[in-house]
């Protein structure tokens, strides 16, 4: 019977320790995932914002296909004259961004009549408050009809809504 | 005294165990903090922004011979063989109201639903009149020539999917028509 008070004394610091662990865990999780103030502080420390344009001035977020940057349509594509379309990209965030083409971008259109190739993108686009200098780069898409493309199966064909995506990431 | 001695001798191990409990708690705190930081880092590493761009692509019409033939199957696949042995153009009528008949001798090996698609480069054929009014051109017989694309003259593309072509492909075009059937492109 004289052991119980001693066990209670032993249990007190242990429970306090667990309480500290549990309390800290909850507080940390809350701060990292649900506390708006903390999240905002993190965001301001590393804001991510990539925008695109075709005229070098009207930059848009273009976050999805519905808001995509509209490139000039390609018409009259022939085997001897590839068509090139450029997208200017501006790192409007506050941290450098690595740019890559999406793996889902098409490399071939119209049953192989048109090859689609992509330029090499910068791996560290610097941030800038204005779309100028090192904060801007150009991504180029080239549409080519193969020299030996069959006229009967390729000539005169068309496809709409060809979407290409540039992905920017902070690492 | 006995009781006091007993209590003294048991308190020391209790302090040791309590100290261990605190140390374990501290270790868990550190581990939890590291886990949280790690999670935050991974989240930060996954921050991405995409830029979407969209366009459309339309190929011009071109020909690799004055008249070529391709057997076209479902899904625009090529199925079989088809060649043009000879081609010619004849024209009659007055300017603005002329009829042009393009014909070619077809030698091929394919079966329905595969049909011959003809691509004609009129700049490579004789007897094509200058000043032909393509804006008012329409096929003369849409029943025999299923589709005609004259949108990029002098290239004319015709699908003979409804024709009993019987060794001869014929495209009849009329000038001075109000309809734009000739401008309907061949389907993709």
What brief labels describe this structure?
heterodimer; A: 171 residues; alpha+beta; 2 domains; five-stranded antiparallel β-sheet; two-stranded antiparallel sheet; 3 helices; 9 strands; 30% strand; elongated; B: 188 residues; four-stranded antiparallel β-sheet; 1 helix; disordered N terminus
Roughly how many Å apart are the termini of chain A? 62 Å
List how many beta strands of chain B DSSP finds.
9
Structural class of chain B: alpha+beta
How many independent structural domains of chain A? 2
Main sheet specs of chain B: 4 strands, antiparallel
Task: Going across the biggest sheet of chain A, name each strand in turn.
Answer: 1-4-8-7-6
Silhouette of chain A? elongated
How many domains of chain B, as an integer? 2
Oligomeric organization of the protein chains: heterodimer
Main sheet summary of chain A: 5 strands, antiparallel
Total helical segments of chain A: 3
Helicity of chain A, in percent? Answer: 25-40%
Mean pLDDT across residues of chain B? 75
Low-confidence stretches of chain A: 8-44
Strand order of the largest sheet of chain B: 2-5-8-7
């Amino acid at each position: 019977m004289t052991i119980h008070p001693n066990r209670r004394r032993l249990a007190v610091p242990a429970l306090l320790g667990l309480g500290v662990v549990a309390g800290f865990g909850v507080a940390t999780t809350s701060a990292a995932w649900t506390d708006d103030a903390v999240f905002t502080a993190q965001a301001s420390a590393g804001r991510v914002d990539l925008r695109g344009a075709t005229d070098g001035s009207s930059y848009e977020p273009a976050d999805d296909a519905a808001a995509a940057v509209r490139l000039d349509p390609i018409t009259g594509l022939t085997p001897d004259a590839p068509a090139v379309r450029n997208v200017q990209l501006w790192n409007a965030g506050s941290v450098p961004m690595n740019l890559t083409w999406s793996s889902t971008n098409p490399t071939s259109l119209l049953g192989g009549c048109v090859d689609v190739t992509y330029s090499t993108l910068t791996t560290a686009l610097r941030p800038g408050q204005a779309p100028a200098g090192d904060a801007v780069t150009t991504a180029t898409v080239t549409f080519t009809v193969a020299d030996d493309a069959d006229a009967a199966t390729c000539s005169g064909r068309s496809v709409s809504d060809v979407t290409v995506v540039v992905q920017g990431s902070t690492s | 005294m006995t009781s006091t001695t007993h209590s003294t001798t048991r308190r020391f191990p209790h302090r040791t165990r309590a100290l261990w409990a605190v140390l374990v708690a501290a270790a868990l705190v550190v581990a939890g903090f590291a886990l949280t930081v790690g999670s935050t880092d991974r989240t930060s590493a996954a921050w991405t922004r995409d830029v979407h761009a969209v366009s459309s692509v339309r190929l011009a019409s071109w020909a690799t011979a004055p008249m070529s033939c391709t057997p076209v199957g479902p899904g625009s696949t090529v199925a079989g063989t088809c060649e043009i042995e000879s081609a010619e153009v004849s024209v009659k009528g007055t300017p603005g109201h002329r009829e042009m008949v393009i014909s070619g001798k077809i030698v091929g090996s394919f079966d329905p639903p595969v049909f011959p698609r003809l691509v004609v480069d009129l700049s490579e054929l004789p007897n094509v009149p200058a000043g032909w009014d393509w804006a008012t051109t329409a096929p003369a017989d849409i029943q025999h020539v299923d589709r005609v694309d004259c949108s990029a003259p002098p290239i004319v593309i015709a699908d003979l999917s409804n024709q009993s072509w019987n060794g001869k492909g014929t495209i009849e075009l009329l000038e001075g028509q109000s309809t734009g059937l000739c401008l309907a492109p061949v389907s993709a």
